[in-house]
Write a structure and sequence with these properties.
With 234 residues, the chain is an alpha+beta fold. It has seven helices and eight strands, in the order ααβαβββββββαααα. A six-stranded mixed beta sheet has the order 2-3-4-5-6-7, covered by helices on one side. The protein has a two-stranded antiparallel ribbon with strand order 1-8. It is globular and about 60 Å long. The two termini are 24 Å apart.
Length: 234
């Protein structure tokens, strides 16, 4: 996403899984520079929506802390956390800092903060409405339990909190979910042992379908929300 050269080694399962589209990922990323104006309450809410965890003191990637005019963020893409010092609502300084000593180590002109969540959404009311409509359409022996679990997530969305396992709503959140291939359109892709990969794809899909059957029987999932990977013959 940052257009930097890198090498990624991964198993085929990851390539098959559907994920946030690159455009949505970029839109959900946050850039803070020396010209930024920050209201800490809004920033705190934005970081939580991005999947970051609020902490009294930042200790690891994916955490942030707001203490008066000091904002600490540990972006997932950085080896060190970033400290942003404010003058009122204006950014005064940006710098990496050491977790142990809490001392600044390198000043920055800007910092890019990518999402820490695998799935992003910015329309809680819209997703709640889609889940409500889905509840009304459910039929069958597991419908009552499915509706009960969906209603719990509807209540969470309406109260401003995140549902559990948000990735199960990929078909409702993104009109066209992406795969990892959408992120590496201009990349060289090397495949090792194509025969074993085909077998891995078949095994992955078999296990995925078995897991889905179990989740449907438990009421944790319904048939309208089962598209989590591209077909095994793709």
């Amino acid at each position: 996403a940052e257009k930097e050269p890198l090498t990624i080694v991964l198993c085929f399962d990851v390539l098959m899984e559907k994920m946030i589209p690159p455009e949505a990922f970029q839109e959900a990323s946050l850039t803070i520079d020396l010209d930024s104006v920050i209201k800490t309450d809004e920033l705190r809410r934005t970081l939580v929506e991005m999947g970051y965890q609020s902490s009294g003191l930042v200790e690891g990637p994916g955490e942030f802390s707001v203490r008066g005019d000091i904002v600490d963020i540990f972006p997932l893409t950085e080896e060190s956390p970033v400290r942003i010092e404010l003058w009122g609502d204006t950014v005064d300084t940006i710098a990496f800092f050491d977790l142990m000593s809490q001392r600044r180590t390198e000043t920055l002109d800007a910092v890019s903060v990518p999402p820490a969540a695998e799935i992003m959404y910015d329309d809680a009311a819209g997703l709640a409405a889609k889940l409500t409509a889905l509840c009304a359409r459910l039929r069958g022996k597991n419908a009552a339990l499915q509706k009960e679990n969906l209603q719990k997530d509807i209540d969470r969305l309406q109260s401003g909190s995140l549902p559990t396992s948000l990735d199960k709503y990929i078909p409702l959140i993104y009109e066209k979910p992406a795969t990892f291939f959408d992120y590496c359109r201009d990349s060289l892709v090397f495949v090792s042992e194509i025969g074993r990969i085909r077998e891995r794809a078949r095994t992955f899909h078999w296990q995925l379908q078995e897991d889905i059957k179990g989740l449907i029987e438990e009421g944790a999932l319904c048939h309208a929300l089962t598209e989590f990977a591209m077909p095994s013959d793709t």
